[in-house]
Amino acid sequence: MIIAQQKPIQEIAEMIKDCRKVLLVGCAGCVTVCLSGGEKETEILASELRIMRKLQDNPLETVTFVCTRQCDPEYITPLDNLVEDVDAIVSLACGVGVQYVAERFPTKWVLPAQNTNFIGGSIEHGIWEERCGLCGNCILHLTGGICPIIRCSKSILNGPCGGSQYGKCEVSKDTPCAWQLIYDRMQSLGKLDKLLEIQPPKDWSTARHGGPRRAVREDVIIG
Amino acid sequence: MSTESKLQALLDRGEFVVTAEIGPPKHSSPEGIKHHAEMMKDYVDATNITDCQTAIVRMSSIAAGIHVMHSGIEPIIQMTCRDRNRIAMQSDLLGAYSLGVRNVLCLSGDHQKFGNHPTAKNVYDIDSMQLINMVRQMRDDKVFLCGEEIKQAEPRFFIGAVANPFADPFEFRVVRLEKKINAGAQFIQTQCIFDMERFERFMEKVRERGLHERVHILAGVTPLKSWRAAKYMQTSVSGMIVPDEIVERLKKAEDPKKEGVEICIEQIKHIRNIPGVHGVHIMAIAWEEIVPEIVQRAGLHPRPKVQ
Amino acid sequence: MAGDFEPKIVAFCCHYCAYSAADLAGSMRLQYPTNIRIVEMTCSGNIDHRVILNAFEEGADGVYVAGCMEGDCHFLKGNYRAKKRVNHVKKLLEEIGFDSRRLEFYNLSAAMGPRFAEIANEMTQRIKELGPSPLNKKENGKEGDGK
């Protein structure tokens, strides 16, 4: 899922400092699962902003709504009736959702309440980690199911580098060395000999380096 | 594959070589490096010029290498994968060769987090393994990485790489060295040695796989100035092992700098007796002036001449 | 100001411990301030960040959540969740400029009638010293008006 985390409240408050009424829109997709932008978090944010503004003698009126997701145009339409008299729309979705809302309401000021961080999964309740490098050309079959593009700080394909020590990446003691993990995994798979093969340079044109990407399923497009 | 590199000529004829390191300045005056080069030129066979080591902005390795060359030492330029993509790398290699550089050391490079520009975007388009292979292909197959022919004057570098016997997983380090040799590495410089026992175990594995006959290994050493410097390396540098005995020895010494040099010389003398080691690489970080003394007292002076 | 300000304090109490302790305090005829409005919950772990924030927005001068002693929660970990949530809301309150001392979390057992009274007294005293909630002050234009 996409993991996003809320911006500091001061930053959000600053964005809406000249607003008297805002619409806060949560998303029931990824950000609900990573506990940062769902129904609960949207209402908490609305409460925080109201209290904060009241203390500043500059009351703020808030309206909250949660979309099923903000990355499908059909699910944004319910906002049509809510945006009339608001000074800004604060979206708690990931960067995708914010852009969809902004696209639907080009005359409305749409603001991101969150920083979209990475795609990953949960480790335990309350902890999420990055797992996929979005390279567009998956090589997990070559590395025992561990992504070197994103889990290795240097995206090395023939690792580990000389900074790997005690299973940790030189960048942080909290970051496992992806190549130590790959080595251990390939060893348990009995496929260590595969690591002797030299992996050629990556074709980055399928990643963001080739420009904004698009995916199509011709057979379902009916116009 | 032979090249015009003097370092290669010395190694191929069986000499125990001495290389050192010069760190370029954080400004645009070459006076400092020229001075260091002048001072070292009769004591080393070639020197590395680091490439924004620790991700700190310094004069480029190639430019600094030219200054060193004009001062009379053969340069080994370093190229990391952190700051350049394959296009810039190949371009720089053509330029460096056109200016007379004949040796290149290929490495991954410290992550920018360690340097003075931690907010920079890094590149890591290709890794060190792929870089070694690319440099070899430019020389032997006369092609760019994309497969296009280099129609004339292909760069013919003597290719170096690094090995770190002190990083993990230990068992894989020798395998990775073999990979680098397969990719085209002709000489290796190791991370500086303080844990001699581990280095000897590493060399044993190297010899088991016959790698010492396929590549020239230069053992890295660093003279330490104080027990604090030793402690810092022990605790804060990834991939480095410094035994407590070394830290203690420096702590107890009356003149720590003198002791540090002693330790370094002892290490070099010991290393000369390890089969498969074809030279020593002296990394006197911010202490380039000490290199002549170390080389002299280790019995490695005068240096052999190359025609 | 301290003289005539009577704080409104909401106490979210878990059924198994805190609420029972409140009952016990009652039967023991222990005095505790009438400022405390008790809200019974099945478990302190029922507490939600929104409920606390709402309480303050609706006029509470102080709020506390009381659950079982650690290790004794009838629902095993409800009181740990409650404590974490209360601490998180305290942090949020500080970030928006609201005094987090107006919010507290306590552990007590059903047998601790006297402790219940003590907590009630402690919190009431604390809020009296802090004065009316700044969210209440402006409404009536007068300080010291806790309505």
How would you sum up this structure, described in words?
The complex is a heterotrimer of chains A (223), B (307) and C (147). With 223 residues, chain A is α/β, with parallel strands linked by helices. Chain A has two domains: 2-118, 3-Layer(aba) Sandwich (Rossmann fold); 133-210, no CATH class. Helices cover 26% and strands 22% of the residues of chain A. Chain A contains seven helices and nine strands; from the N terminus they run E-H-E-H-H-E-H-E-H-E-E-E-H-E-E-H. Chain A has helices at residues 9-15, 30-33, 39-55, 73-76, 95-104, 148-151, 178-188, and strands at 2-6, 21-27, 61-67, 88-91, 110-112, 114-124, 127-130, 168-169, 172-176. In chain A, the strands form three sheets. Chain A has a four-stranded parallel β-sheet, with helices on both faces. Chain A has a three-stranded antiparallel β-sheet with strand order 1-6-7, with no helix packed on it. Chain A has a two-stranded antiparallel sheet with strand order 8-9. In chain A, strand 4 (88-91), helix 5 and strand 5 form a beta-alpha-beta unit. The longest helix of chain A is centred in the first third of the chain and has 17 residues, at 39-55. Chain A is elongated and about 65 Å long. The relative contact order of chain A is 0.12. The model of chain A has no long low-confidence stretch (mean pLDDT 96). Chain B is built from eleven helices and eight strands. In chain B, strands 1-2-3-4-5-6-7-8 form an eight-stranded parallel beta barrel, surrounded by six helices. The two termini of chain B are 19 Å apart. Chain C has five helices and four strands. Residues 139-147 of chain C have low confidence and may be disordered. Chain C is of the alpha/beta class. Chains A and B meet through strand 8 and helix 7 of A and helix 5 and helix 6 of B.
A few lines on this structure:
The complex is a heterotrimer of chains A (223), B (307) and C (147). Chain B is α/β, with parallel strands linked by helices and 307 residues long.
